[in-house]
Structures are given as C-alpha cells and as structure tokens.
Specification:
Number of strands: 5
CATH class: Alpha Beta
Largest sheet: 5 strands, antiparallel
Number of helices: 3
Number of domains: 1
Distance between the termini: 26 Å
CATH superfamily: Histidine kinase-like ATPase, C-terminal domain
Length: 137
C-alpha cells in the first residue's frame, strides 16, 4: 500500500492498525531503495510515533484517528504523524536512560525517535511529529 506524496492515511486509534503503517513504510522504503540499516531506523521511528499517537495522544480511543503521511525530496524522506489528543511538551520529558527513570514508561519512544531519525520536530502543541531521514548517508 503506497500513498502518493503528501497523501495522508487516516486510521482509528487501534493497535492493529500499526500493521498498515508498517506496510506503508515498507513500500515507501522499497520505492526509494532504502538500505537495511536506514530502513530499521525509519520503521522503528515511525511506529514509535504512531504508537505514541494512539496510546498517549488519543488514549487508545478508537473513535479518535491518527494521520500519517510522507513526502520526499532528492535528499530526504519525511514522515508526519498527527493525533487528535491534547498534545505534550517534548522538552519536558524525563531522560528515559537516567537510573531513576528506567522503570518508568514515558519518554522512551521520543528518545528512540530522536536517536534514529536525522531530525525530529514537534508541532501543534506536540500533536504532530515530523520525522526526517536523510537519503544521502
């Protein structure tokens, strides 16, 4: 299932919809001949963003939707994930690698996205995450 650039996929906030997101990412990466390592970074980052949209943003409420889209340029691929939640302040998340936070279940997804994507931006009060991946390295 491939979307045209700037076309979005809108799905209910159900965990089983992650498989559709994974298929979309696989198709996009196939089209751009993304190597295995970069593909791993993309699939983990995008699925973390979608999981956060479902669980934290939309509180696993299936009557709320999340949107996912992608766009490309000659140098990068960008995925955008948007939820219908209340947002959050990404800068205020605790460091999930700090010893006092190891057992806590918050901030790990954002931490992974920031480590694996080449650029991560949060917009709309944290309801939108933009993940950029450089194709040139």
């Amino acid at each position: 299932m491939i979307l045209a650039p700037d076309q979005k996929l809108r799905l209910p906030s159900k965990a089983e919809n992650l498989i559709l997101v994974e298929r979309m990412v696989e198709d996009v990466c196939d089209i751009f001949s993304i190597g295995e390592e970069k593909f791993g970074n993309i699939i983990i980052s995008v699925t973390e963003a979608v999981n956060n949209a479902i669980v934290h943003g939309n509180k696993s409420n299936p009557s709320k939707n999340f949107d996912i889209s992608f766009r490309s340029s000659p140098t990068d691929i960008t995925f955008v994930v948007k939820d219908e939640g209340n947002g959050f302040d990404a800068a205020s998340l605790p460091d999930p690698t700090a010893p006092e936070n190891i057992e806590k279940d918050n901030g790990r997804g954002v931490f992974l996205m920031k480590r694996l994507a080449d650029k991560v931006d949060f917009e709309d009060g944290g309801r939108t995450v933009i993940l950029r991946f450089n194709l040139m390295n």
